[in-house]
Hints:
The structure holds 2 protein chains of 2 kinds. Chain A has 14 helices and 8 strands. Chain A is α/β, with parallel strands linked by helices. Chain A has an 8-stranded mixed sheet, sandwiched between helices. Chain B is 54% helix and 13% strand. Chain B contains 4 helices and 2 strands, in the order H-H-H-E-E-H. Chain B starts with a helix and ends with a helix. The complex binds adenosine-5'-triphosphate (ATP) and magnesium ion (MG).
Amino acid sequence: MAKVLVVTSGKGGVGKTTSTAALGAALAQLGQNVVVIDFDVGLRNLDLVMGAERRVVFDLINVVQGVAKLPQALIRDKRLENLWLLPASQTRDKDALTEEGVRRVISDLRTKFDWILCDSPAGIERGATLAMRYADEAIIVTNPEVSSVRDSDRIIGMLDSKTVRAERGERVEKHLLVTRYDAGRAARGEMLSIDDILEILATPLLGIVPESQDVLRASNVGCPVTLNNAGSAPARAYIDAVRRLMGESIEMTVPVERKGLMDRLLRRRAA
Amino acid sequence: MMNVMRLFGGRAASAPVARERLQILLAHERGQGGGGGSDLLELLRGEILAVVSKHVEIDPDKVVVRMDRGKFVSMLEVDIEVPNGVQRSKMVAAT
Ligand SMILES: Nc1ncnc2c1ncn2[C@@H]1O[C@H](COP(=O)(O)OP(=O)(O)OP(=O)(O)O)[C@@H](O)[C@H]1O
Ligand SMILES: [Mg+2]
């Protein structure tokens, strides 16, 4: 049965779009049929991170308004044939996205895919509530930083009240994904620790993605990091996260600071 | 030694790729004026579909529109499945 996941955070710039692309690609790499949907109307970026920006013809709003059929708007990934993108519109009016329209699109996608990943816009306004509205599960992307954790808490509250599942008295299963984790700064006590975050948010941990140059490099070339460099630390973190989503139990390791000359050279080198 | 080679020149820098991708994308987006207008490719797509649907009934499920925006040339591919028989007579009737 299809699963609808929203990737959300409240706070902007924490890594939702990066994570949607990486998790979507990782699921597809494991043979699942996946579609990633960009809900960031007006500021779409998922197409860029996926490297599909030159191929966008129709978008989510076109489908919602009946201008295009769903199959016409879906863009198939060039590297993975079971990975698809439904892009957001760049220019049109945000209010063009209606709850009923989104419901129709998602129930249509449910018949075609195993996983539907919704990349939420930042904030707690309409765009974010629409992205989470029909979710079965949520991935809450958090950085180890007070404002991010606070916003995650608000988003958790919304997941428990504003989703269709919540209104029906059902549960939206929640997973915490800590991204941009800097082991060095955590060791020096400059960043909230994983334990701190887990204690405050009381949400099961899905994974810890380290701060890494590999993420920037992947987005430069328009390729999800799990595809661009599957052996890199962030890619391995995303792949483990996806295995956990699929029900495997995989030990969680907190990244530790890498030291040494080679590493310092690597760090200094621009991407 | 291998590692050092890899370190300094083994992997191509990704920033030039990013630059190129952005140039292409922005050239098209700026053309749209940001106000919801459409660029040439969008215009062509709309008009081609309109002309064809004047003569044959297009089943929206049988239309595939693909686009590839390039730096110097872009490609617009409109693939319309036209059932034989019925449609042919309509086409004849229309000429
Ligand atoms: N693990 C990471 N290591 C290094 N940089 C990262 C990492 N994750 C994300 N980034 C960078 O952080 C920036 C924001 O990421 P991204 O666009 O995915 O966030 P977002 O939550 O989708 O933002 P918005 O709220 O604007 O939609 C990007 O420049 C991205 O490359
Ligand atoms: Mg984003």
